[in-house]
Amino acid sequence: MSPADISREGDKWLERFSLEGWSGEPVESYSHGMRQRLLLCAALMHSPELLIMDEPMVGLDPRGAVRLKEVVRELADDGIAVLLSTHTLDVVEQVCDALAIVNHGQIIASGTLDEVRKRHQSDGRLEQIFLDLTEEADQKAKEGDDEVAGDA
Question: Which structural domain range is residue 119 located in?
Answer without folding.
Answer: 98-152
